[in-house]
């Protein structure tokens, strides 16, 4: 696809090496990796990630999503995940264009579209689809505006709206519509997610969660799991453990201090749950960080 080939040239010009790079457009980020990475804990936000070249896999709950150049990943709510670049090289790096999704912009667009059938069930927050020529061309034009700041200020909003419109018209349109529904079930699940993120180091409290979401415990549990592929308690644990792993890998914190920082009073419980999620005890990862700190910093930057 010619548009993706030209888009890869722009991304290469704007990414001096491996990492995630801000741009002059507030919701647009460019991601590059010159080599495959280790699996790294991360936290996905609502976004569309257009893979230009290379390949990556993302583990959410017990479901693995793999996507490659010419495909894109949409994420409808914030979810803890494990990301890994699986195909990249210095000659042909992994390249990705990420556009975070603004609920207000989506809502404004939806007002002009035909209303979907009511009562649609919530779907898993992640989905992989093929990039078509129209979407690739719109992404190319937005990225090309980065070299023309005056044009970006005027044309950027129009091209972003076009990209969102194309996403809404695609297979994942129903999922993205739910982001902008002011009092819909996805919005209530999002409130619960926000509470968990703000309080992950505190003990899990279902009563506080249902109050934040304005839902019954049974309804919240069912809808939360449909979207995030995890129960609220599992989500809370993953937030804690992923944050602890970040502290170990990015700050070199020892295992005991990392566990305490995220709310674990029992070192043995922390080690047990950490090993269950990541396959090895935290003390091993602390030792790996000492040996490979630069490599893990790159992996974290593109996860």
TrEMBL record:
Pfam families: AraC_N, HTH_18. InterPro entries: Homeodomain-like_sf, HTH_AraC, Tscrpt_reg_HTH_AraC_N. Keywords: Transcription, Transcription regulation. It comes from the Bacteria. Gene3D superfamilies: Homeodomain-like. Residues 190-288 form the HTH araC/xylS-type domain. PANTHER family: ARAC-FAMILY TRANSCRIPTIONAL REGULATOR, TRANSCRIPTIONAL REGULATORY PROTEIN. This is AraC family transcriptional regulator. It comes from Asticcacaulis aquaticus.
